[in-house]
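Quarterly update from the structural biology core.
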Amino acid sequence: MSDEKAIYWLTQVSGWFGYILLILFQNLLLGNVDLGIVKVLFANFALGIIVSHTMRAVIIRSGMLSMKILNVIPRIIAIAIAAGVLSSVIYGVISDLLFRGGSEVPQMLAPPFVLIIELVFPFTTVYLFWSILYFAAIYLKNYEREEVKNLRLSSSMNEVELGNLRSQLNPHFMFNALNSIRALVDENPDQAKVSITQMSRILRSSLLAGRRNLVTLRKGGMIRITAEIDKTTAGDALKLTVANSGTFDPDTKATAQNTSVGIANSRRRLKLLFGEEAGMDIFNREGEVICEVTIPLLTKTHDDYEDINY
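Predicted structure, tokenized:
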């Protein structure tokens, strides 16, 4: 038995049992409780479960769960009335059988069936209330499923966008790195060799990272970061600052050598990975280009990321 069916039957049994106990308590207050009443109440307990379960089967087979609410309401009322009439007749039969021979108890199936008719309204009300609870539970479950589906769709779209940004950034990094090494070949051949070795290490680490979006930065690798969390200025965020010589012109237009996609893509990836509080600012200060990256602190543990020693 699946979890949903188990919950359904648990709700059915506990709900109808609670309803019977409520009626029994009312009879206790009125001093109208004997063995015959108890038998009738427990017969109604079984009757309520059987009839409501039959109603559920009719609702599912008729496709009412996929109908609009305005089309469901009249059908539910009709089913509740039919169930009320059926339950009244069955109740009358059970009552007459249990109280047979008792002249002080009127027979419910005796003409003009006034007692049976009087039971139709309360039975119909009970089944109508049951239908409302059942549909409310179904609609709530469907709403939760749609929410999960939407979250998965949004996550998939973010993954696709991250993949597209990664596919643009990787060639962009290669172009910039190769141009820098090309300039070093004549000026500083030894440094050019070191740069080629460093670039090969980065590419190897990138291949080892696979499709992971997050990796750890450890001491001892090519990139060494000394970070301090300053809650007075950055709040619960990590702010990384990198300085380089030169100047930065934010109005530089894209050319064959400069595609101008690196900064925009990096900012977009930061927001996709860490939320709207993440960001990257680049500006000039005292003859240097300053890049500040703000990353909100994450609660994930070390095991959630792949250890890549850049």
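The mean pLDDT is 75.
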